[in-house]
Amino acid sequence: MLKNQLRLENDIKVLEMGKMKDMIFGTKILVVIILLHFISTAASTSSINTKRALKNHSRVSVSYPVQLHNYDDHVVVDNGIFSITIASPEGIVTRINYNGIDNILNDRNENSDRGYWDVNWSDPSDLKDGLLDKLTGEHLDVIVNNENQVELSFKRPWTFAQEKNQVSLNIDKRFVVLRGLSGFYSYGIFERLRGWPDVDIYQGRIVFKLQEKLFRYMAVSDERQQLMPTFEDREKGKPLDFPEAVLLTHPSNSRLQHEVDDKYQYSTENKDNRVHGWICSDPPVGFWMITPSNEFRNGGPVKQDLTSHAGPVTLSMFFSTHYAGPDLGMKFRDGEPWEKVFGPVFIYLNSVSTEESPRSLWDDAKEEMLVQTNSWPYHFPNSSDYPRANQRGLVTGQLVVRDVGSAFANSAFVGLAPPGALGSWQEESKGYQFWTQTDEKGYFEIKNVRPGYYHLYAWVPGYIGEYMYQSIIYVLEGRENRMGLLVHKPPRNGPTVWEIGVPDRTAAEFYVPPPNPTLKNQLYASQRTDSFRQYGLWDRYTDLYPDKDLVYTVGVSNYERDWFFAHVNRHVGNKTYVSTTWTVLFDLEDVITGNYTIQLALASATAAELQIRINGVGDASLVFTTKLIGKDNAIARHGIHGLYWLYSINVVHSYLRAGENALYLKQTRGSYPFSGVMYDYIRLERPPAY
């Protein structure tokens, strides 16, 4: 045991430093040669294999046929690389045997608490808190069973007799094991029939809980990976302002002493949430969640969600209200029918020899993610609800921006989502979304689009607002929709007088303070780009402005240094918070008759009301209020943005004067520590010159 602990410590150091040389080149070449030989002699082998430069030494058994063993209360699928045990007919993964590890999953947990699907839902006519449904199957269908593929379907039909106990969905959970692949796929088909009762559904996911004694090192990205606390470490720790956040006071590893652990510190935007998971050092084994497409996720490309966290737990979040609020939940009314396919996602297992660096497991997982992404849409799912590549469409075009001048929409986000209003995609969960980014000249290709009706939406970093193509687009199977030249005209009523920030839908350019020294997560101590993920930054405003609020002088102040990243409340002691008012001072040489405009873009809002006054603090000086807005909770959950809000505010010239002016921004809801807004961008415009 001591030897293993020392080895773990040594491997952790190597992982964190990232300096271990690649020692496995020869082994890689040998495995690739062996694999290609088997592929060339087996025409029916998955085409995914032909794209992969396999590095996993255990995959020399690629020729082993996939076998299904059916028992009274469970099934076992074995492809010679690993085996998976699934409770039958429940469809819950209870065991994963791989590379000498009898069970990668936490076998101290009950069978129902190891590897499972679940949803959070509620009955809108009932005031009870939300319910958790683990979508336990009632019937097993063997969809495919041959030497190259096993696909299993665990179904649960819904009946009115279950109205108060189960979410009103027909459930079809699928598991797929292919020959020669070190991992398995899972996808689900959710269906509501017309006339079924009203229901609210807030979250859907897959959960895997791993062996705690084996998996201690977590990786979410190249920069975000570290040794993690155990469940017991968290239990012994000091709870902070909400249950997810714990100060580690008696960790099993002294290196974690006085660290803060919170699962929301490891959240990631959908566009970047492609691979994450865990590393075991002895034996060197990796467990990874790979998501090859975002088409089934909700909220668009920059919606944030959970990844992996202490437990050890690995998640595949299909939809949730995180960083958005309950408006992102799916609300079904008046017997609305619905169907959606979630996944497939790939649960990837990899290993190296004991002489090699565990670091290479992360590098290999990233390569596997690219293989899986480039193979999308998959050819193997045996469901008519999942269209193959030749059953999908293509949408192409070019986007330009006409603001003060004309420019190509470089790196713009362009996407297809169900028809709706401008910006409705960021609160869309029921349908599919397909997003891409433009090249330097604004050209885009949205590939592999499911046939259907869509609106085309776009937004361009560096410009406020967004674009929506007014006509509905009908994507046909195997056809290309050529959109031609599209012109985005961002909101603007006149020339810029002054501006604060960069219009990119985040508050990342503003001042993010260092955390309280007693509430650090060392992972982010030296990271500028992710420093906002530290715990308790909302109270740092009080440390910086204990008596007077922020004052920003246009032309003198620097928003990177002088504009706090979140407009929050001041802590005045005894867990009491009061509202705050920020001041923007600016000079005008003269005042032109007509309407000035304040372009106000918010990157986040939580239980907030922002009031704007000019040259006075009384009601007579009030020019605008947002009223009560926002439930994205991004401040508490260490996000640098939530949902996007844009207001174009007319200001009659009589509010202004030649010389010095003061604009007051007051967040009026002061009793809650997490009430507040994050600004994306503020601009004052002069009246237009006709």
From TrEMBL:
The keyword Lipid biosynthesis does not apply. It catalyses: Endotype eliminative cleavage of L-alpha-rhamnopyranosyl-(1->4)-alpha-D-galactopyranosyluronic acid bonds of rhamnogalacturonan I domains in ramified hairy regions of pectin leaving L-rhamnopyranose at the reducing end and 4-deoxy-4,5-unsaturated D-galactopyranosyluronic acid at the non-reducing end. It is found in: Secreted. The keyword Transcription does not apply. One of its GO terms (cellular component) is extracellular region. Pfam families: CBM-like, fn3_3, Rhamnogal_lyase. One of its GO terms (molecular function) is rhamnogalacturonan endolyase activity. GO terms for biological process: carbohydrate metabolic process. Keywords: Lyase, Secreted, Signal. Belongs to the polysaccharide lyase 4 family. This is rhamnogalacturonan endolyase. It comes from Helianthus annuus.
